[in-house]
Amino acid sequence: MHEWSLAEAILEGLTSLMKQEGMKKVSEVEILYGEMMELELDILKFALEELSKETPMKDTKFIFSEERASFRCNSCGYRWNFEQAHSSLSEELGIRELAGERESPIHFIPELAQALMRCPNCGSRDFEIESGKGIRISRIVFEG
Ligand SMILES: [Zn+2]
Fold first, then answer.
1. What is the mean pLDDT of residues 84-111?
2. What pLDDT score was predicted for residue 105?
């Protein structure tokens, strides 16, 4: 249920930003979230709605956009995406993905990826997660 703590963190961040900027209302907030987080958007939206009820953010419109994950090998410079990462990790762990079944027994978490994944091109474990890992506020529209 990390969606609830994320919602809390988002609202806290907005509150301190409003104080800092001397604003009374936030009409719109755009949130960019990484594909690797596998967020339950419905839960996050619900949590934001519930937690903002008694705050100045109760009428704030939250817009979500997904940031695609990308990985880059430090040895050969090869770049790959989330789908490739997912299947190479499943291979690494010996997990057979059944035909037509997207569901994998392991939840794809960044820490696990970092520890187990290899570059699909050269097999190196020395790679970086370039994007798609975190969550951030990309745009805020203040009012008043
Ligand atoms: Zn490589």
1. 63
2. 44
Q: 8-35 burial by CB neighbour count: b if 16+ within 10 A, else e? A: eebbeebeeebeeeeeeebeebebbbbb
What is the share, in percent, of the chain residues with pLDDT greater than 70?
A: 85
Q: Round the average pLDDT of the chain to a whole number and report it.
A: 85
Compute, in angstroms, the gap from residue 71 CA to the centroid of ligand 1. Answer: 10
Give the CATH number, domain containing residue 21: 3.30.2320.50
Q: Say whether both 86 and 57 belong to one domain.
A: no
Residue range of the domain that includes 16: 2-67+132-143
Are residue 45 and residue 77 in the same domain, yes or no? Answer: no
Q: What angle do CA 49, 3, 100 make, to 5 degrees?
A: 115
| Cα 97 to middle of ligand 1, angstroms | 24
- Give yes or no: residues 101 and 87 share one domain: yes
CA of 76 to the centre of ligand 1 (A): 4
Q: 63 with 84, same domain?
A: no
